Amino acid sequence: MTIRPETPKDFSTIHALIKDAFQTAKVKDGDEQDFARALRRSANYIPALALVAEDDDGRIVGHIMLTRTRVEQFSGLPYAGLLLEPLSVDKRHQGRGIGRALVNHALLLAGQMGYAAVFLCGDVDYYARFGFKPLSYYGLGSHDIRHLPHALACELTPGALSEVAGGTVDCWELEKAAVCA
User: Fold this and answer.
1) How far apart (Å, rounded) are the C-alpha atoms in residues 66 and 161?
2) Which of these CATH numbers, 3.30.413.10, 3.90.226.10, 3.40.630.30, 3.90.650.10, describes 2-179?
3) pLDDT band at 122 (very low <50, low <70, confident <90, very high)
4) What are the residue boundaries of the structural domains of the chain, listed by start?
């Protein structure tokens, strides 16, 4: 398996992959493929953190995006972080460690690029293995109760979220902040 940055020639394949993969996802909105397209058009898109996994035959079997977003701190000032969304693996290749490899690679690159924290809304059990914890662990809250159980954060730099305590993180707001420049 090879992990590399996505390119424009990959976009239609990635669109189909995301749409198909999220049909059976535990946590989904149903428009993840359109969200990925919107993220690419935003000023918060980071091409180096939009990655694909290719099998030995060069077919794209996985995809992940990390984009800039901001979180409302208790002080009212925005905190700059990253949004991990979406992560997709071809249904025929799930359970083979592709998602794990993509997440680990993306988080490593993000840390090397100087980013200190990543947020997401997703499957708590799945993302816990990468160090993601519920918002409450970091003293963060959410205005949106229905997304709160799925709202997670991960510090790439220890203590990065200590200054953000008391702030609020909403999945919809994270997504809006990532799409809107």
Assistant:
1) 18
2) 3.40.630.30
3) confident
4) 2-179
